[in-house]
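name: query_chain
kind: protein
chains: 1
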Amino acid sequence: MIALPLPLVVLGWALTLTVVYLAWAFWSDSSRGLAFATHRTEALPRVMVNRYFVIFMFMGGAMVSRDPLWIAYAFLVNGIAPLWDALIYRHAGQPYHKHLVPAALSFIVAGWAFYLYSMTGEA
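structure:
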């Protein structure tokens, strides 16, 4: 593992903590989250286009890397969002299977990739 320059570490953690704050703001008071992020509800469908494209780039990049540990991480992390959505919709009594299925499939890919890594030790 290489030593990272301090400014990179500080900036990286500052951005990471900003994302954590946004998650907390949206969770605790969605209007505060929207205000802080300067999102407007009418623009959210267009915002989601970007979110899904970024997820595609993250998962696709992992697949192109052919690194089982990176694939396991990417699909584990990206399986959390549809699982969370499924839980929200299930709790509201609304259909949720279209969210649960991709979550489960992401976790299967993550587990399979991690199993492959653990059997080969290759990353």
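note: Residues 68-91 form the longest helix (24 residues).
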